[in-house]
Specification:
6-stranded mixed sheet, about 15% strand, alpha/beta, single chain, about 45% helix, about 625 residues
Length: about 625
């Protein structure tokens, strides 16, 4: 076609109908996008958050860092526990001092959040979405900066930071933006048979001020995740950062606070607490309306005890010992890849990592042969250091000072009891970071349930491989720990996999995958037994940030609940017979029984009240 008219005529020919329809569809899609897209008032460039810098070594009042690096109390605390001394665990570099707050300072933080929350609770869902959209924009634009700061404070690699800090946070933001309002809208329920004239609904009302005491393994996401749900539900939030990652905490929480400020809201609805156990206890007992705790079972019990005084509800996520059952009919290459990532992601410091790989006999030797050279080839080192020569590493360091000693003790116990050590097994000394806290990537095979490493959480870079005779034996091994967070089953036989998963005692399970429950943000996250209770994430987690208030209203104008005369106080003598007949009309198992009860009810309604007043006077 050479002219516009000829072009239009060509598009209308039958042979080009599909092309015409495509143009129309694309045009409608473009129009729909511009009509429905939210108005973007602010971008990441409007958000300015001060970036933390490592302090000069001269500011550290303790110069004997290397000699005392394994003494946690000496290394972390100074000035009688009023200051947290922060270090890069991958290099031993002193990062700075952070204030350890007193109970009075913690209470002041809660009070400020409660005052600010009054106005925030009145905001619309669109106003809250605007804040979350700005947070998402900032995280995407600054993901390298966020990962670098998280790496310096926790010792993780940048890739681990991208997957564990950025991807998870972005997906939580995306899901909340897309589904949050729908989840928190009132739900209408049937009034039932007795009160069919009423309309029932459930409202999800902000609880007030929530608290989160979070772990150190993912400092950005563990802090930001609870904030996202809390503020979208209309609450204030006070987060206590772990003393092991307090250096980065102010930067991470200021991302949210600054986004709130830019959007015209009071940033005081989000508060940060830093300190030790005293500060955590003060936060739990400060009068907050709910507490989420992420940490160990031992500390979780202390949180419950402290919360009991005020009857404060608690969500506990207390770690796991997740099994991965590998069947003979699995996709073998996929399993090996996922096992490596499931064990060594974040140097094994994952609550939902694969701490136990249970391999059936038919594929056991092949699996061990496949993973051995890959584990031995893993490299370690700091993610952010001028001494790496531009290298990137597979695994970072152990965040906790005592982590290497804990893992070494578990490995040694397993070897003494018959496990074979095929790689690693001891603390590592890294040439470019001689003061770092490293443990060698380790492979233990022939592990059995009588070994400590089979039942205690490792939280380190150790692949533990168990041999199972059959499905029943694999399930027995998998259920042989006090933990019950997540689980995985690898088989191409879906029915077999589903059958195995149903028998696993865990809060979450995956077929041919590991740990993806959390990336499915529509699903609740949590476990059973020593892994804790209640849930965060998903509809259940978001609604858990709310008071679920049951409300009834009149369904029809002028139709309201009236008390039958025989049941009005003072009750008539025939009131008991009337109540019995009423129950039978509604619930008698046979039609004949209901009919008889209806006749009795009618008779009592007409004649039952006569003489009751005189009878009552006689009784008096």
């Amino acid at each position: 076609p050479t002219t516009m008219l000829q072009h239009l005529q060509h598009l209308l020919t039958p042979t080009c109908t599909w092309c015409t329809l495509s143009y129309i569809a694309v045009g409608l899609a473009v129009v729909w996008y511009y009509v429905t897209r939210p108005v973007v008032r602010f971008t990441a460039k409007d958000v300015r958050v001060a970036v933390p810098e490592a302090a000069d070594e001269s500011e550290d009042r303790f110069t004997d860092v290397v000699e005392k690096k394994h003494d946690d109390d000496v290394r972390r605390k100074s000035h009688g526990g009023k200051v947290i001394r922060c270090f890069d665990p991958s290099t031993g570099e002193f990062l700075g001092n952070v204030k350890a707050m007193s109970p009075e300072e913690v209470q002041a933080k809660v009070d400020r959040a409660r005052e600010a929350q009054k106005a925030w609770a009145e905001t619309t869902f669109e106003q809250r979405r605007e804040v979350l959209r700005l947070m998402l924009d900032y995280v995407v634009e600054n993901q390298e900066l966020i990962c670098q700061i998280a790496a310096r404070d926790s010792g993780k690699t940048l890739v681990d930071g991208c997957l564990g800090e950025i991807l998870t946070t972005c997906e939580k933001l995306r899901w909340t933006l897309a589904e949050g309002e729908k989840v928190l809208k009132p739900q209408y329920r049937s009034g039932g048979m007795v009160v069919g004239h009423k309309r029932g609904r459930v409202e999800f009302v902000p609880l007030g001020v929530l608290a989160a005491i979070v772990s150190w393994n993912y400092p950005f996401h563990n802090m930001t995740g609870p904030i996202i749900s809390a503020i979208f539900a209309g609450n204030g939030m006070v987060v206590k950062a772990s003393e092991y990652v307090s250096w980065s905490a102010e930067f991470f929480i200021n991302v949210t606070r600054e986004c709130l400020r830019v959007c015209g809201h009071d940033p005081e609805i989000v508060q940060l607490v830093t300190g030790y156990g005293e500060a955590g206890k003060a936060l739990v007992q400060s009068g907050v309306d709910k507490v989420t705790f992420i940490g160990s079972p031992g500390v979780g019990k202390h949180v419950m005890r402290a919360a009991a005084d005020n009857l404060t509800p608690v969500v506990l996520e207390l770690g796991g010992k997740d099994p991965g059952i590998v069947c003979e009919d699995c996709d073998f290459g996929q399993v090996v890849d996922l096992a490596m990532r499931g064990v060594f992601q974040n140097c094994g410091q994952n609550c939902a990592g694969m701490e136990r790989i249970i391999v059936l006999d038919g594929v056991y030797d092949r699996f061990v042969e496949a993973v051995t050279p890959r584990v031995r080839a893993l490299t370690q080192g700091p993610a952010v250091s001028g001494n790496t020569g531009g290298k990137s590493f597979d695994c970072g360091s152990m965040t906790m000072i005592t982590g290497t000693e804990h893992v070494r003790a578990l490995v040694d116990d397993a070897v003494r009891k018959g496990a074979r050590l095929l790689a690693g097994g001891k603390p590592a000394r890294i040439a470019c970071a001689p003061n770092g806290q490293y443990f060698e990537p380790t492979l233990l095979v022939d592990v059995t349930n009588d070994m400590l490493i089979a039942t205690e959480e490792v939280f380190g870079p150790v692949m533990c491989v168990f041999r199972a005779r059959d499905d029943d034996h694999a399930i027995e091994i998998a259920n042989g720990t006090p933990f019950g967070l997540g689980s995985s089953v690898f088989t191409l036989d879906t029915k077999r996999g589903e059958k195995i998963m149903k028998r696993l005692r865990s809060g979450m399970s995956n077929l041919n995958d590991f740990g993806v429950n959390y990336l499915c943000q529509g699903l609740p996250f949590g476990g059973v037994n020593d892994s804790g209770f209640d849930r965060f994430a998903g509809e259940e987690g978001l609604r858990g940030c709310c008071l679920m208030r049951a409300v009834t209203t009149d369904k029809f104008p002028g139709v309201r609940t009236q008390i039958p005369p025989l049941l009005n106080y003072p009750i008539k003598a025939s009131g008991w017979s009337f109540a019995q007949a009423m129950i039978s009309v509604l619930y008698a198992p046979t039609l004949m029984g209901r009919a008889k009860a209806a006749l009795q009810l009618g008779k009592l309604s007409i004649f039952g009240g006569k003489g009751d007043d005189s009878d009552a006077k006689k009784r008096q």
